[in-house]
Amino acid sequence: MGSGLEAVSHYEVLGVSMQATAAEIKRAYRRLVKYYHPDSLLAKKDQAAAERIRQINAAYAVLRDPQARREYDRQLLARQTWRRSQPIASPPPTVSQEALLREAWIRQVYTPLNRLLGSLLASLKPQLNALSADPFDPELLAAFGLYLEECAQKLAQAQQIFRRLPNPSSLGKVASCLYYALNHLEDALEELSHFPLNFDDRHLHTGQELFRRAQELRREAGQAYAKISL
Questions:
Q1: Residue 125 scores a pLDDT above 90
Q2: What is the pLDDT of residues 68-86, one digit of tens each?
Q3: pLDDT value at position 84?
Q4: I need a labelling partner for 129 at 20 to 30 A (CA). Which of 72, 85, 144, 155 fits?
């Protein structure tokens, strides 16, 4: 997700107006994702396609959520009002504003989200070890089901934290990694929830692999954050 201080707004990224409906935003997102998909001919020819798809996903992550969109619109309109009030010859103090936005995003989004993701990602292995004692045991299956429900609640909390504030452009890489980590966790929980229904081990293996990939993305977010903090 990008902040309202970026040269190109989320609406411009998706090619819609600020008055666009949720359905129009969704249609625009789907069209662009298909157009810039890594397997598409365009993406194979265009080296900037990967960054373009990151911008598209980041923009949609904000605009699809009503609360996040309202906050983004507020910042965007405030920025536009501020620009109109400035003398033409006066350069905007973007450095100090970017620093303030970065500090707020780190405090309100990155720090609590990183902590919550850490505990969530570390929780799967002990559960799988316990379940492996007897995957058909009703009590173990019931405990595993409760665990998945708790994970779903924590994931919803993590997604809410992620949408608290649009990220500053300087933290785009950090936000992108966290965004995909959350997506992988959502897919993992859905995959794991199928195991008690058919006892197919592939659901457990796939879910575990998605957890592992989410952990890698969290680590990449931390590395990107560390470089910026140096």
A1: yes
A2: 899 888 888 877 776 666 5
A3: 63
A4: 155
Amino acid at 213: R
Per residue in 202-215, pLDDT (tens digit) is: 999 999 999 999 99
pTM, entire model = 0.61
Three-class SS state of 158: helix
Query: Which of the pair, 77 or 63, is modelled with greater confidence?
Result: 63
Is the Cβ–Cβ distance between 214 and 99 less than 8 Å? no
How far apart CA 73 and CA 175 sit, in angstroms, is: 19
- Tell which CATH classification among 3.30.430.20, 3.20.20.140, 1.10.287.110, 1.20.1600.10 matches the domain 1-92: 1.10.287.110
Residue limits of CATH 1.10.287.110 in the chain: 1-92
| CA 202-208-212 angle, 5° bins | 140
How far are the Cα atoms of 6, 15, 45 from residue 60, in angstroms, in the given order? 15, 11, 24
CA 95/CA 81 separation, integer angstroms: 18
